[in-house]
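lol ok so funny story. i was supposed to be doing the assay writeup but got distracted and ended up predicting the structure for this chain instead. priorities right. anyway since i did it might as well share w the group, maybe its usefull for someone
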Amino acid sequence: MRIVSNTVTYLDGDAVLEGFFAVDEDLKGPRPAVLISHAWGGRDEFVMQKAKKLAELGYVGFAIDMYGNGQVGTSIEANAALMQPFMEDRALLQQRINAALQALRLLPWVDTRKIAAMGFCFGGLCVLDLARSGAEVMGVISFHGLLQAPEAHLQKPIRAKVLALHGHDDPMVPVAAVQAFQAEMTAAGVDWQLHAYGKTVHAFTNPVANNPDFGTVYNEIADRRSWITLQNFLAEIFA
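and the output, tada:
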């Protein structure tokens, strides 16, 4: 195994974006790829490490840049300011993540017939909106993601299988939001799953999350269980 990684520049209109890819160069030929959408803080070390872990599993990992120029927030306020334009304009969000998908398709190791997308927190919403945009991806996986649907005119037939990995006690995604998401997926005829982890709040996969008052706390057990579930899901959709 020889994991190599680097950044690659791609465009969404005038926005210059910096993706990060990881791949095992000892493998030969095209292979499945997984797009990784970051949390509200930007394309940070956390998602780049996920890209490398996916490369170790034999996939192409591609950590995308939703904000441009590799911007990373340094505080709750800065993170919120970076995320808010996309929360207010879901058409922009869908356009931006579809630009990342097209950039991923151009990487030389990618089997373009076998692409999935995963995301964390805000990134979970991004990959769900990728599916809602009608993009040709085989599956999307949301880790402690925001679940709310965009406006009706932004929802196209969903082609992907959907997996949502959710902390039951997540204060940012209350029970009513989960129920609305389940109803949305069912009405759309989607092959969907939702795994809820008890005694688990937001950001449960992030080892540095430790803010109970804000509702973001790492949970080692839920982190391990959700990663195993992800691997099983990818093995199923790429079989």
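The longest strand covers residues 110-120. The mean pLDDT is 97.
back to the writeup now i swear
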